[in-house]
Amino acid sequence: MTILAQSAAAEPDFFGWNLGFVIGIVVVMVVVALVAPILGLAGRIGKQAPMINEALQRAQRDTAALAELRTTIDHATVIIGGLQRGRSRLGGG
């Protein structure tokens, strides 16, 4: 009886190690599964970034004249005022 007890106790129990190894592999696989699509999306965004930047610069260049719109409105208001004064002096309604 003591021989069986000694031989059973002499064998190491690797259940904890195996369980930890399996859990570690599962965690790594889950992290890779979550990170891989993010990296793929980041790569696509990186490839499109120069085109997006170019389009934004073109939009800025094309709309730069709108900054002078207030000046144009002010000048138009002065011109309309002058036209109204001229019309009233000429007897127009």
Please give the structural blueprint.
Blueprint: H1 2-10, H2 15-62, H3 69-89
In helices, the fraction of residues equals: over 70%
User: What gyration radius follows from the Cα positions, in whole Å?
Assistant: 40 Å
Low-confidence stretches: none
Count of individual helical segments: 3
| Estimated share of beta-strand residues | under 5%
Shape: rod-shaped
Averaged pLDDT: 88
Largest sheet: none
Distance between the termini: 127 Å
Q: Quick one: how many beta strands?
A: 0
Structural class: mainly alpha
- SSE order: HHH
Description:
- By secondary structure, this protein is mainly α.
- Among the domains are: 37 residues; 28 residues.
- Helices cover 84% and strands 0% of the residues.
- The protein contains three helices and no strands.
- The protein is rod-shaped.
- The mean pLDDT is 88.
